[in-house]
Design a protein that fits this description.
The complex is a heterodimer of chains A (109) and B (113).
Chain A lengths: L2 E3 L3 E5 L4 E8 L6 E6 L6 E6 L3 E5 L2 E6 L4 E6 L8 E8 L5 E3 L3 E6 L1
Parallel strand pairs in A: 2-11
Antiparallel strand pairs in A: 1-3, 3-8, 4-5, 4-9, 6-7, 7-8, 9-10, 9-11
Chain B lengths: L3 E4 L2 E4 L5 E7 L5 E7 L6 E6 L6 E2 L6 E3 L9 E3 L8 E8 L8 E2 L3 E5 L1
Parallel strand pairs in B: 2-11
Antiparallel strand pairs in B: 1-3, 3-8, 4-5, 4-9, 5-6, 7-8, 9-10, 9-11
Chain lengths: 109, 113
């Protein structure tokens, strides 16, 4: 079966750095997405990786290793507004999106 | 720009009643999707449409139907609601070809009693 694994919940301190990991087992691979979802709101796009390596976008970076079936989202200089769930999703060989259950990130002052 | 609009925002429905969740996008995206999101689970695909006039079943299609008469609209119908269909429903669109980011509506919270 196809599976996306992420930690259920993480806690970090304002101003610090946090890394949210995602591992996947899918039938084929055509890209990996990270979305942010604040409580009670819709998911919003953060990043997309299709090749190995690091993609940096401001305070957020996303890394992909296709051989390891692994990605992480790195958030720097954490702000209280970063408290949200972070969803990892993989596009499989049929171009269907497989979603992880999400990681709830709690930021403490 | 409106983007993608869902209605209603929330609804309480008696079991056995029918309900249509509306979804409209003004971005001229070809692909549209309906997901349900339940606590502790990832987004689960109910139905999808790659282009106007075509629809397909997702992971959890039972009890739901969709239509795609034109590019902009993608309604989701529950013919006879059951309590297990209590969930938050998200409509999403994608420019084309099953690639690229998804744009989500704000969600419809449905409670079936």
């Amino acid at each position: 079966g196809q599976n996306i694994d992420q930690p259920t919940e993480m806690t970090a301190t304002e101003g610090a750095i946090v890394q949210i990991n995602c591992t996947y087992q899918t039938s084929g691979f055509n890209g990996l997405f990270w979305y942010q979802q604040h409580a009670g709101e819709a998911p919003t796009f953060l990043s997309y990786n299709v090749l190995d390596g690091l993609e940096e976008k401001g305070r957020f970076s996303s890394f992909l290793s296709r051989s390891k079936g692994y990605s992480y989202l790195l958030l720097k200089e954490l702000q209280m507004k970063d408290s949200a769930s972070y969803l990892c999703a993989v596009t499989d060989s049929n171009y269907q999106l497989i979603w992880g259950a999400g990681t709830k990130l709690i930021i403490k002052p | 720009t409106a983007g993608i609009t869902q209605a209603p925002t929330s609804q309480i429905l008696a079991a056995g009643r029918s309900m249509t969740l509306r979804c409209t996008q003004d971005m001229r995206h070809n692909a549209m999707y309906w997901y349900r999101q339940d606590l502790g689970l990832g987004l689960r695909l109910i139905h999808y449409s790659n282009t106007a006039g075509t629809t397909g079943k997702g992971e959890v299609p039972d009890g739901y139907s969709v239509s795609r008469a034109n590019t902009d609209d993608f309604p989701l119908t529950l013919a006879s609601a059951v309590p297990s269909q209590t969930s938050v429903y998200f409509c999403a669109s994608q420019p084309s070809g099953n690639t690229g980011e998804l744009f989500f509506g704000e969600g419809s919270r449905l409670t079936v009693l």
